[in-house]
């Protein structure tokens, strides 16, 4: 998959809002090829959406681990925007920061097809209440851009639930076996999105080096974790002095990378760091890979939430009360529920994730060891589009926290265990 330009390792386009053409609707199919400038604008918008989303979700999550796929949420909302008109459509596009992206649905359709040629499976569906007359153009465009026909609910709750869960299970390669416990009452429109990602590290970890270690929750407490270790891991990373953070990039064999942001302090404001993070310059900031002593915990995470409240805080309350969805049907409609679930497993050969994913790397004296809370983003390398974003506060929430050993001895062991490569 090659898309010119964009945040990846190509010439950066100047920032700023460029007026989108008034006539783009008419010229839709002629001028909608994905140029560097357009994919740059899409990547920038989705990155801002990702940061907004993580910020809101973290307020709700009360210091637990968070994994989200802003891309799959954006695809579902864009699919809804296809059926929305006037203010509702405007607010949807503004919430995703894509209002200035020309040919949005066409671009997302191209992106969706290209991404699914790699290690990613993407699926989105719109379930509608029985008896709704849905407009032909909406049906055609849903399939054309999002690969989804709206599905009519049977009205028999148990059957609908079973069918929806079966679809999600298949779309996520079995990673999310039960997506919904129950259907919201009087479901009129149910918006579903599923994404599955299985990435293999370009440089694998040797399982025989994996062993018990600790993860620092804060200045006082640690929890035990199984830590994957490598003596001379080829890693590109840098320190951003202005924010007192370190940033590392773990490439997958496909055109995706884990980018990890790790603070040097335990008390830090994720939102502040992300809002000031120079993601558009990332390519220029990442130096050449150098042999580095690396430690990453083995993690298995699962996160589920209803997005109604979060999206409401992001300016989309009307979706759940009285949206204008007249491009779907002339009958009054409202969205009763938007659900998102993510799983992540991080292991020696790579990452398997559905609907979202997480990993990170921190530095202790002469090594990069992921042993404290961190934020991660998985980027598609060519476009710089974020596929997953999240934060890990505690990779082993079931373990009882332990009081930390004196810091000096901890660092001394680290240095002895991992002499700096010459």
From TrEMBL:
Q: Does the keyword DNA repair apply?
A: no
State the name under which the record lists this protein.
Serpin family F member 2
**Which one of the record's GO molecular function terms can you name?**
serine-type endopeptidase inhibitor activity
Q: Name one Pfam family in it.
A: Serpin
InterPro entries membership: Alpha2AP_serpin_dom, Serpin_CS, Serpin_dom, Serpin_fam, Serpin_sf, Serpin_sf_1, Serpin_sf_2
Task: Write down the PANTHER family for this protein, in alphabetical order.
Answer: ALPHA-2-ANTIPLASMIN (PTHR11461:SF20), SERINE PROTEASE INHIBITOR, SERPIN (PTHR11461)
- Where does the protein principally reside? secreted
Q: Which family does it belong to?
A: Belongs to the serpin family.
Keywords attached to this entry = Glycoprotein, Secreted, Signal
Any one GO CC term of the record: extracellular space
Q: Where is this region: Disordered?
A: 11-36, 398-422
Where in the numbering of this chain does the Serpin domain appear? 51-395
Cellular localization per UniProt: Secreted
């Amino acid at each position: 998959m090659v898309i010119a330009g964009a945040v990846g390792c190509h010439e950066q386009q100047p920032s700023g809002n460029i007026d989108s053409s008034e006539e783009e609707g008419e010229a839709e199919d002629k001028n909608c090829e994905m140029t560097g400038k357009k994919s740059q604008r899409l990547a920038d918008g989705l990155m801002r959406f990702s940061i907004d989303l993580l910020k809101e979700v973290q307020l709700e999550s009360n210091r637990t681990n968070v994994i989200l796929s802003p891309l799959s949420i954006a695809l579902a909302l864009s699919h809804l925007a296809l059926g929305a008109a006037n203010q509702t459509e405007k607010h949807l596009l503004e919430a995703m920061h894509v209002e200035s992206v020309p040919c949005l649905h066409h671009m997302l359709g191209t992106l969706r097809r290209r991404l699914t040629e790699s290690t990613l499976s993407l699926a989105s569906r719109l379930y509608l209440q029985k008896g709704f007359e849905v407009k032909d153009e909406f049906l055609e465009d849903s399939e054309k851009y999002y690969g989804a026909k709206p599905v009519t609910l049977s009205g028999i709750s148990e059957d609908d639930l079973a069918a929806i869960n079966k679809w999600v299970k298949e779309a996520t390669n079995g990673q999310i076996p039960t997506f919904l416990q129950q259907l919201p009452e009087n479901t009129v429109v149910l918006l579903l999105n599923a994404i599955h990602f299985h990435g293999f590290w370009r440089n694998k970890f040797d399982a025989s080096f994996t062993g018990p270690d600790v993860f620092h929750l804060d200045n006082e407490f640690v929890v035990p974790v199984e830590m994957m270790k490598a003596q001379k891991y080829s890693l590109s990373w840098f320190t951003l002095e202005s924010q007192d953070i370190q940033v590392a990039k773990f490439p997958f064999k496909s055109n995706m990378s884990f980018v990890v942001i790790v603070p040097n302090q335990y008390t830090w404001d994720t939102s502040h760091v992300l809002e000031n993070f120079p993601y558009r310059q990332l390519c220029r900031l990442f130096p050449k890979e150098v042999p580095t002593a690396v430690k990453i915990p083995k993690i298995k995470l699962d996160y589920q939430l209803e997005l109604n409240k979060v999206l409401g805080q992001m300016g989309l309350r009307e979706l759940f009360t009285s949206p204008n969805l007249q491009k779907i049907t002339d009958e009054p409609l409202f969205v009763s529920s938007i659900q998102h679930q993510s799983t992540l497993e991080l292991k020696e050969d790579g990452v398997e994730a559905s609907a979202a994913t997480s990993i990170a790397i921190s530095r202790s004296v002469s090594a990069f060891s992921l042993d404290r809370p961190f934020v991660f983003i998985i980027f598609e390398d060519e476009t710089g589009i974020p596929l997953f974003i999240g934060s890990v506060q505690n990779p082993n929430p079931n373990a009882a926290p332990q009081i930390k050993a004196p810091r000096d001895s901890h660092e001394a062991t680290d240095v002895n265990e991992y002499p700096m490569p010459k």
